[in-house]
Amino acid sequence: MSTSPTSLERTPSSLDEKLPIEAGAPAVEAQGGQKRSWYRSPLCQVNIVGACAFLSPGLWNSMNSLGAGGGQEPWLANAANSIVFGLMVLTCLLGSSITTVTGYRWALCLGAMGYAPYAGGLVYNLNTGATWLVYLGSVTCGLSAGLFWSVEGAIALGYPDPSQRGIFLAIWLAWRNAGQILGGAINLGLNAKGNKIGAISQVTYYVFIALQCVAPLVAMFLVNPSQVQRKDGKPVKMEEHIGFLNEMREMWALMCRREVLWLLPISLYAQWTSPYINSFLSLYFTVRARALGSLVIAILGVVFNFALGAFLDNERFTKKFRARASYLMIMVSLGGVWIWATVIQLRFLDHKPRLDWTDGQRFAEAWMLYVLFYITYFTLQNNLYWVIASTARAPHELIRLSSFLRGAESAGSACGYALTASKNLPLTVPLSIDFALWGVAITTAWMTVKEVGVSLGIREAEEEE
C-alpha cells in the first residue's frame, strides 16, 4: 500500500535498529548453517516483554487486587482508575499507528513510563490526604499504559510460531502474575499481623515505585519483529511501514469487520467486572486477608493459564474443538461465579462484615468467591487473545487486533471503575450490570468462536511463509 504524503513514515533504518544491545548474546546453529542468536529468539524476547509486564502492569494489578489500590476505602482509587482506563481507550486504539512510527522497542519503553507516578500519587495521598498527584498519576499512566498494552499483546501473539501461541501467551501472562505474586508476598509479609480493615503499609508502595522505575530500561532490550530469529528460520512479518494516517485507516477497516465486532461485548466484559470484585475485597476483608488473596490468585492464575495454553496448542485436537471447549468451559464457570456472587452480596446488604481468615466458613465462602473469580478472569484473558489472533488475515494485523482488544478492555475498565467510585451506590448495582453483561458477552462472542477452525484461523501457517 502506498503512503500518502501527509503520513508520517518510519523506515527500518530508524534509531532503534542501530542500538547494539545484542552484543555478546550467545548464538546457536540455525537451519542452513547460519548463526542464530538466542537473544533474538521468540522465547527470549517474550520474556523481556514479560519482565516489563511484571514491573509495570503486574505491580499495578497487585495494588488493585488488594482492593482500593492498597488504601482503606475504594472510592478514590476507583475514580483514579476510571481516568486511567478512559485515557487508555484512546491510546490503545492509537497503539498500532504510534508503533508504526516509533517501532516496537520504543513503543514498549514509552508505554512503561507512566506507572510509577500513579503509585507515587497513592503514597502521597496516604501521607498528606492530597488527591492532586493521584489524578496526575492517573493521567500519565493512562497516556502511556494504553500503548504498553497494545504492544505487549501483539508481541506475545506475533513473535512465536502460531502453533506455540497458547504457551507463549501463558508465559507472558505468568510474568504479569509474577508481579502480583511478588507484590502479594511483600504485602502479606508486611501486613500479616494486620487483622483489621485499613490501608497497606507505605513501605509496600516504595518498593513498587522503585521496581516500576526500572521497566523502561528493561524495554530497551527488546528487538523489533524484523530482527527476531525463529528456530524454523521463518521471518516475523508484523511490521508494515505505511505511515500514521494510513495505519489509522487500516485500523478502522479492521474494527468494522463482522468477526471482530462480535468480540466487542466480551472484550468490554473482560475488564469491566474486576472493579466490583476489588471493591468487594477492600470493603469486607482485613488487610492480611486482602494480601493473601492477592498472592493466591496470582499463583493460581499462572497454573491455570499454563494448563490452558498447553491445551490450546495441543494439535491432537482440532482447532475448532479447542476454541469451543475452552470458551464454553470458561464462560459457563463465570456464570456460576456470578450466581455465587449474587448470593453472597445479598447476605451483606444489612450488615457489612469484617472478614479475616480466623472467621472460618463465613470467611471461606466470601474469600473463595474472590479467588474463583480471578481464576476465570485470568484464563478468559488468555483465551480471548488466542481467539482474536485467529481472526488475523496477515501477521501485521496482530498489533491492530491487540490494540482493538485492549482499547475495548480499557473502556470496560473505565466504566467498571466509574460505577464503583461512589460511596452511595450499593455494590448490588455493579454486580447486576456485570452479570447482565456476561449474558450478552457469552452469546455474541460465540458467533466468532464457532468459526475458529472453520472459516477463521485455518491459514496461519501459510500467512507466516
Automatic annotation (TrEMBL):
This is DUF895 domain membrane protein. Its main location: membrane. It is a multi-pass membrane protein. Keywords: Membrane, Transmembrane, Transmembrane helix. GO terms for molecular function: transmembrane transporter activity. The chain crosses the membrane at residues 43-63, 75-94, 106-126, 132-155, 167-191, 203-223, 260-285, 291-313, 325-346, 366-388. GO terms for cellular component: membrane. The keyword Transmembrane helix applies. Gene3D superfamilies: MFS general substrate transporter like domains. InterPro entries: MFS, MFS_trans_sf, UNC-93-like_regulator. It comes from the Eukaryota. The keyword Transmembrane helix applies. Pfam families: MFS_1. It comes from Rhodotorula graminis (strain WP1). It is found in: Membrane.
